[in-house]
Amino acid sequence: MGERLSVAVQGFHPSSFLSEETARLRELTQGMKVISAVSGGVDSTVATLVAREALGDNLFPIMIDTGLLRVDEPEQVKERLSRSPLSLKLRLVHASGRFLSSVKGETDAEEKRKKFRETFYQVLREEAEKEACEYILQGTIAPDWIETQGGIKTQHNVLEQVGIDPATTYGFKIIEPLADLYKDQVRALGRHLNLPKEFSERQPFPGPGLLVRCIGNVTKEKIRVLKEATKVVETSLSPFNYEQYFAAVVENKFALDPSAKTISATASEALGLPKSEVHAEAFEDRVTGVKGDQRSYGLLAAVKLSEESRETYGWLQDRLRQLQTGIVEKFPDITRVALLVKERRGGRPLSIIVRAVSTRDFMTAAVSAVPWKILKDISQQIMKEESVSRVYYDITPKPPGTIEFE
Amino acid sequence: MKGQYNHLIVRNLKELGVNSKLLSPSVPLEQLESMKPDALVMGGGPQSVRSPDKLTGELADAARLIRQVKLPMLCICVTHQLLATAFGGVTEAARKPEFGPVEISVLDDGRILEGLGPSFTAWESHNDEVVRKPDGFQVIAKSSNCAVEAMRHEKRDIFGVQFHPEVSHTTKGVELFKNFLGIVEEHKRT
After folding, report:
1. Which domains, from first to last, does chain A contain?
2. Contact A63/A96 with Cβ under 8 angstroms?
3. I need a surface site. Which of A44, A177, A293, A333 has the fewest CB within 10 A?
4. DSSP per residue over A182-212, as a string?
5. How far apart are CA A134 and CA A131, in angstroms?
6. How many CB contacts within 8 angstroms connect chain A with chain B?
7. pLDDT tens-digit map of A304-359
8. Could you tell me the domains of chain B?
9. What is the CA A175 to chain-centroid distance, rounded?
10. Catalytic site includes residue B146
11. Do B101 and A291 touch (CB under 8 A)?
């Protein structure tokens, strides 16, 4: 990565970053057209604003509707960006069918991410050809390429840093104005550029969208339920100051090894509760984590306490931390632990997992202490979905989990 | 080293006003010396040092730097383990690996851990641990799972920490870097 002076001096100075970066962009593009890939998230929006300062009308912002965005998201982003003071004219590219069919039948998290990346850049290639444009600008930031290079997970917006030359592979060059910055620096830059708070402080949403929160196989029904659950979680938790909060969906299929008996024994020991009060098992579909600086694609343990214990322990962060570390220390194949909030009888196929974390730079994350009552309210609302029988809360920090599930 | 947190070490030091640069441990000694560094901080990585006679790649290079460089040195996570084995200590698979928040008990709050006692929360991510400290080193912090969370050389300005002071969740990580920079300043004067 190129060392830039404004990053190298003490602290981070948005104004000097901006003047250096706009000069670099002008020099690089020499008056040529540039397409900017916008998701509505803070990174790509700030990258686009930086580029507009430099390139003016030569910048063409587009947003790809992957079908894996939240309820009404593409239209909302387009509308909000068009308002003053941003006044960005965004063109929507509809490609949801292509993304869904590209991951059909695929359950492996990395394969899903790589297929998403391939479709993403194929769509961009077509757009670049249409506009006769040599450059694509994107909002990649430091943790994206650090995690991809480190083999933790493939971010969809990292190519050159992992040895893929976009010019020979896709026929365009890539510009990443924010590649050396961390999230908090990007937010500071956004504030400097008068980005309204709803953008600059917006919680991150992954590039591959709901794909990485739909654990394992992707189906239309899973995505539909996940969109609804996401809306419930975002609405309920937005008044709190968590940096990221969302829902994930997983099928109710459980691994045979390690057995429910052995996980339950460890869980009851960690909590100091009688065995009769604790039942724990692991979902069959794997989830992403990071242990000892290495990717860990492991199991997600699901712990159920008797209703009475749940009411007490749901509030006790220290005990939940003991539960999580007790299980992860004991079973090398288990990466994450979730606690049951609510369930109902009947053989419904899906579980929803709620996640909320506090973090500065998304390199490490602590589990947020969401009040148990709020978790119960959220679960109650999500249970209105016919195909959902359980709602869990993820009690895993990063490490050993990652923030997202795949 | 390939650890993902190593960029955060650079960020921390820059925020403290220090001109710092992230290098691969394969950097030749002459090149390193030509940059006239005041200190060396070595970060973590995904490798294991459990068989010290068979170190390869980055770890072999890092071990060479530990032997050759005579500057104040701070070694983090896997290079803390490497520091221990390079000076004759022992690293093994941890009985209880640590991931995420860990309570660190400070045994000696002088020098690098000044102001961090009696305990603080640090974030960790390790499968191996130092089970026997090398001769000539003092253990200065431990946790309930791990007996050697931090150590220092009894005569030279060499320090090793198992936890990650560079991540924002380690509550007193910045203090540790400030203490280290103070030691570096003192070293320059003598």
Report:
1. 5-200 (3.40.50.620), 214-394 (3.30.300.10)
2. no
3. A333
4. -HHHHHHHHHHTT--HHHHTPPP--TTGGGG
5. 9
6. 90
7. 999 999 999 999 999 999 999 999 999 999 999 999 999 998 889 999 999 999 99
8. 6-189 (3.40.50.880)
9. 22
10. no
11. no
